[in-house]
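Subject: Predicted fold for DDE Tnp4 domain-containing protein, 196 residues

User T.R. writes:
Posting the sequence so we have a shared reference for the thread.
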Amino acid sequence: MLDRTLVSLEYKPTKHGDDYWSHKSQYGISAMVVCDDKRKMRYMFIGFRGSAHDMRVDSNSSMARQVSKLFSPGEYLLADSAYTTTTHIIASYKKPAAGVMSPNNERFNFYHSSTRIKIEYTNGILQGRFPSLQSLRIKIHDKQTHRAAVEWTQACVVLHNMLLKDSYFDDNWTKYRESGIPEISHDAAVVDGKDF
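User M.O. replies:
I've generated the structure tokens; pasting them so everyone works from the same file.
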């Protein structure tokens, strides 16, 4: 399952601050996350400012550039309607401008979202375990502080995966117990090609 999430920022960045303003009406850094059905985060591409569109973030990820290496025929990710259906992404249908969707498309979207909801739960569990990700208090004013926010988020994802069931820790570490083994790509996005 594939989704974009926003790492919300407590403060407006001092440089290029408006570029961090997202469609969720808050400042943040975009992260594209892939998780499995066990809520283990398998891949994260993070670093674009909050105003970046889902497909722009996806198309700049190493995952999108290496589709033939990462996906066998018949393998795909489920994504919401902000994404476009490709050979490796199956997106839900967008609601037509007239507002009436065919019964087949509605049924498809129902089953699609019933499965894809796990990534929403996973993002919720991550932010529940690490409340700092609900409103990150790092003041971004240059490339280094932007990178610090990205690395903080990556560290939280690594810890999330470690805290899943059958990890290195016992039950006292978390009330959110799922199965999996720690694994994450340390891929980070180029920051729109701009210097701070």
